[in-house]
Design a protein that fits this description.
Layout (H helix, E strand, L loop, with lengths): L4 H8 L6 H10 L1 E5 L4 E3 L7 E7 L1 E7 L5 E8 L3 E2 L2 H6 L6 E4 L3 E7 H10 L1 H27 L2 H11 L1 H6 L2 H8 L3 H11 L3
Antiparallel strand pairs: 1-8, 2-7, 3-6, 3-8, 4-5, 4-7
Helix pairs in contact: 4-5, 8-9
Length: 194
């Protein structure tokens, strides 16, 4: 039996659904399990789904021409993730999304997503709030990356996302912060931040 409580609580933080809206929303969701290291989305694939992380942790990342990875975001349980630009514009994915551990997601296709937004103004509001929060988070990250030294960016990451910092590798954190793993190791030794 699939438990919908977590995803309904997530949506309920922003909008209150009635029984009919809840039933319709649940009817659109497809549940998927992912093994550790499984790719949910691969660069170059059609980006057709918006995912809710039910359990586990995912990482969205891209590679440069030398195959060096840059982490775009981590998505622990109770987060939403996709290659949003490509999802909304019907493009091929520009990034990979990988399960860092055994994980489970609910997915909504673009057609289901559009139907949901069209059918209920509450979901329009819900999505607007998700996008406002995501935009704000990314704006603050960009400002931090442009104005703060790496040690301060690392300290803020650990303070803001302690569970993620404990789950992912130092190499993945370094790629999120835009520094080398060796530099991150030196920062950690110098500052005593774990």
């Amino acid at each position: 039996m699939i438990d919908f409580e977590l995803i309904l609580t997530n949506v309920g933080r922003h909008v209150e659904l009635d029984a009919e809206e809840t039933e319709y929303f649940i009817s659109l969701l497809k549940f998927r399990r992912l093994a550790r290291k499984a790719l949910l989305l691969k660069e170059g694939q059609a980006c057709r789904y918006f995912y809710y992380v039910h359990s586990g942790t995912l990482r969205a990342f891209c590679r440069d021409d030398r195959e060096r990875e840059s982490t775009i975001m981590f998505a622990p349980a109770d987060w939403w993730v996709t290659d949003m630009y490509c999802f909304l514009n019907g493009r091929k994915a520009m990034m990979d999304i990988e399960a860092l551990e055994a994980s489970a997601v609910f997915q909504l296709s673009r057609q289901q997503f559009d139907a949901l937004l069209s059918r209920s103004p509450k979901f329009e509001r819900w999505f607007r709030i998700l996008m406002q929060n995501a935009y704000t988070r990314e704006q603050l990250r960009a400002i931090d990356n442009l104005s703060l030294p790496a040690e301060e960016r690392y300290r803020r990451f650990v303070e803001k996302y302690p569970l993620i910092a404990a789950q992912v590798t130092q190499k993945q954190i370094a790629s999120y912060l835009g520094i080398t793993p060796e530099f991150l190791s030196a920062i950690r030794k110098k500052s005593k931040i774990v």
